[in-house]
Amino acid sequence: GQQVMQIPQYQHVQEGEDFTTYCNSSTTLSNIQWYKQRPGGHPVFLIQLVKSGEVKKQKRLTFQFGEAKKNSSLHITATQTTDVGTYFCAGRNSGAGSYQLTFGKGTKLSVIP
Amino acid sequence: DSGVTQTPKHLITATGQRVTLRCSPRSGDLSVYWYQQSLDQGLQFLIQYYNGEERAKGNILERFSAQQFPDLHSELNLSSLELGDSALYFCASSARQGAFDTQYFGPGTRLTVL
User: Could you tell me the pLDDT band of residue A97, with boundaries at 50, 70 and 90?
Assistant: First the structure.
């Protein structure tokens, strides 16, 4: 079955430093979504990437979808304490009837003030 | 607030027991998904329902079952509980079951099996 690997599992950064998490799929994806889960909270949708090579920005967050649609990354510039949480990527297989999202294990971000 | 509600918020029970978790999707959403999140683990997809019908099954144990009712709320039944079933159980909903649908997660039910 489809596997989505995410690295690193944990990342501790000093406030103001940049942060990147990477997501790799064993199969080609039709799209990839990113979610953020704050400590004690539930996953919240951040963004969806659909096109090969797509890059989207949300303020200090930059999301990329690989050319082969098998990998993705999330980069946060100048982290703030409000960025603390676990970031999950979730991919959908390309192919008819494949609507199930497969989540990566997430990257837990800690920001040291 | 995502608009998805889950009850109860916390559940403490003993091994061998049976529990039911409840989820009400966002107004108008037809799809409901159940996920299990154990400590330091990602979100393990369990099962999906669309408009009352089972549509996809993930790593759901035979001891677990779910259903979606005509009013679109869903219940996840966990039986013969084991210590390893202790986890956060999330329900999510989406408008339909399209390939580009966003999932909206509820606050979760924390299950502790003693």
Answer: low
Extract the runs of DSSP E, i.e. beta strands, from A1-113: 4-7, 10-14, 19-25, 29-37, 43-49, 55-58, 61-65, 71-76, 85-93, 101-103, 107-112
pLDDT digits (tens, 9 = 90+) for B93-112: 998 777 788 999 999 999 99
Q: Is B108 on the interface with A (CB under 8 A)?
A: yes
- What are the CA-CA distances from residue A66 to residues A7, A55, A60, B98 (Å)? 16, 9, 20, 22
**Would you say B77 and B62 are in contact if contact means Cβ atoms under 8 Å apart?**
no
Q: CA-CA distance, B32 to B70, in Å (whole number)?
A: 13
What pLDDT score was predicted for residue A92?
87
Using CA atoms, how far apart are residues B87 and A43, in angstroms rounded to an integer? 15
What single-letter DSSP state applies at residue B83?
G
Give me the residue label for tokens 């889960």: A37
Q: Is the C-alpha dihedral spanning B10, B72, B44, B66 positive or negative?
A: positive
Q: How many residues does chain B have?
A: 114
Hey, which residues 23-82 in chain B have their CB within 8 Å of chain A?
Answer: 33, 35, 40-45, 48, 55-56, 58
Q: Which of B42, B99, B108 sits opposite A104 (nearest CB)?
A: B42
Q: In terms of CA atoms, which chain B residue is nearest residue A29?
A: B99
